[in-house]
Design brief:
Arc Repressor Mutant, subunit A; eight-stranded mixed sheet; two-stranded antiparallel ribbon
């Protein structure tokens, strides 16, 4: 008979595309994962996954089953969260998501300090671009989201968490790398390496340029990358210039692999937000962590 354990394992394998990755994610052995999936397929009388040398992919039956399995898995996790209302913070599971900058440079410290207060709780953090984290919130895949831009989404509530500065960087041997500052009109001849569409950083760049009556369509964008680390590496290699979070670029600035370029008349700031589903009752653990983020931030 089907059980929710099998559904959660199947969803993990389908989303991660690998038995090995799913095993690490669920803290299980790979043989145990394989056995559960095989038992599920035997129960259904269908092949759900195509096995490759390293990765797996969904069959047509698997795609159909995944949609409903994901929905049921989310429903089950919400049920468990509701039950958690009647339990203290001694134990519990919290799933949250964050866009790249807060996920890689801010939240690990907050999670570590919170775990010192409540060592028995389990917190999992998924990292993606801002749009992807919002999608996860709307699907109830996560309870909390920390994102780098405020989207027009009526089903979410947004709470200011941190202020971030985006700075323009260039390679040391770039012509701008030797200048104290450049003007707005100097921006156009350069080549740019930017984050992909959907990232909070990209949204803020577009918004701030629009305030100057500029559009990214006016710029020579030679490369779009899915992580800020990759953008900084590309800039250091002389592939172009870029705006990145000041948190992300501190190490590269200290090492001298990139230089900050000031732009007269242009300052890029943004707010990092805590996002929560509107009219959703948070579990005690999720509420405690949200309060910890916001109250702890006010003390820093």
């Amino acid at each position: 008979m089907l059980n929710f354990r099998q559904l959660s394992i199947f969803v993990a394998v389908a989303e991660l595309g690998s038995f090995t990755k799913a095993a690490k994610h669920l803290f299980m052995t790979q043989p145990a994962i394989s056995w559960q999936i095989k038992s599920l397929e035997t129960e259904l009388g269908l092949t759900l996954l195509e096995r490759g040398d390293r990765n797996v992919s969904l069959t047509e039956a698997g795609k159909l089953f995944y949609t409903e399995a994901k929905r049921l898995n989310n429903l089950y996790e919400r049920l468990m969260a509701d039950i958690e209302e009647y339990k203290g913070l001694g134990k519990g599971n919290l799933k949250m998501g964050a866009s790249t900058i807060p996920g890689e440079y801010l939240l690990p410290n907050y999670i570590g300090r919170f775990k010192q207060l409540y060592p028995e709780v389990n917190i999992s953090l998924s990292i993606g671009d801002t749009r992807r984290i919002v999608e996860k919130l709307l699907m109830d895949s996560i309870q909390l989201g920390i994102i780098g831009a405020k989207l027009e989404e009526t089903k979410l509530d947004f709470f200011p968490f941190k202020e971030d500065h985006l700075i323009l960087i260039a390679a040391p041997d770039h012509p701008w790398g030797k200048k104290d500052a450049i003007g707005l009109t100097d921006l156009f001849p350069a080549s740019y390496v930017l984050r992909e569409e959907g990232s909070g950083t990209r949204m803020v760049i577009e918004q701030e340029l629009a305030k100057q009556d500029f559009s990214l369509n006016d710029f020579d964008v030679v490369m779009e990358l899915g992580s800020t680390r990759a953008v900084i590496t590309a800039v250091a290699a002389g592939l172009g210039v870029s705006w990145v979070s000041h948190w992300a670029v501190q190490e590269a600035l200290s090492l001298g692999t990139v230089r900050q370029v000031k732009v007269e008349g242009l300052e890029m700031k943004r707010t990092i937000y805590l996002a929560i589903r509107r009219n959703r009752t948070l579990s005690p653990l999720a509420k405690a962590f949200a309060d910890y983020l916001l109250q702890g931030n006010s003390k820093e």
